[in-house]
Amino acid sequence: MLLTLASGALFFPGLFALSTWALRRSRPEWTDDDCLTVGTRLVSSVQAVLATGAGLTIICSCSNVVSDRSSGENLATSLLAASSQQN
What we know:
By secondary structure, this protein is an all-alpha fold.
């Protein structure tokens, strides 16, 4: 989980920096604001596609998305954990 977080923390800013750099070099007539706007929208689009893919993977792998637990957790242990966090 920590590796995934670290990868995302490097991937998305890196994609933004790479896209703005490439836009500045390939479109010198564009202003910095134009390059930043397109770079931001590109990163947002990639993030949306990846989030949709993750959601589809979860939906396809579970028979009941609301109640299925892949970690072996059942309703009793889930309720116990929730009640202990409130106290």
